[in-house]
Amino acid sequence: MHTIFPIVLWVDALSVAIHAVYWPIAHGKLIVCERFVIDMLADLMVATQDFTLLERWYGRWYRRLLPAHTILILLDGDPARICQRRPDLAHDRILPDRIHAFRLIAAHFGWPLIDGDQSIEEIHQTIWRIVEDRYANT
Predict the structure, then answer these.
(1) I need a labelling partner for 13 at 20 to 30 A (CA). Which of 37, 57, 63, 131 fits?
(2) What angle do CA 134, 113, 41 make, to 5 degrees?
(3) What backbone phi and psi angles, to 5 degrees, belong to 116?
């Protein structure tokens, strides 16, 4: 099950990516996705309790679902602070595991992880710098 489920989920994600991401990009659209592949990967790591999933051959397939030239920015935060901002997560028992999974994913792929405990203005400025740097280097 630890091998079959991730593969079946990847095939499902591929079909969604083709329809919702790759097709519109091929037709000149700009796509902004919130947590598409990354959220799925973190949830899979938590559901299977396999935090080494990124090292497995099928775990690496998830990154291939991201379009070329994708800019990824992940927000991090203290679980207590997240629950203050999002009361619907106050009783989420897997929130610490999800945060751990997102941190592992960011570190594994070298993606920016922004401290979400900052002010909205500071977060905005950090995101803006990352996007500007990315386009300045292309």
Answers:
(1) 131
(2) 100
(3) -75, -5
Residues 6 or more apart from 37 whose CB is under 8 A from it? 13, 17, 62, 63, 65, 66
- Contacting residues for 28 by C-beta, under 8 A, at least 6 apart: none
Rounded to whole angstroms, how far apart are CA atoms 38 and 86?
20
Q: How far apart are CA 74 and CA 37, in angstroms?
A: 12
Cα–Cα distance, 122 to 128 (Å, whole number): 10
Angle of helix 95-109 relative to helix 37-48, nearest 10 degrees?
A: 120
Mean pLDDT, residues 108-115: 92
Gap between the Cα atoms of 9 and 115, Å rounded: 30
DSSP string spanning 63-76? GGGSPTT----EEE
CA gap 59, 78 in Å, rounded: 26
pTM for the whole structure: 0.81
- CB-based contact 123:75 (threshold 8 Å): yes
Tokens of 19: 């329809």
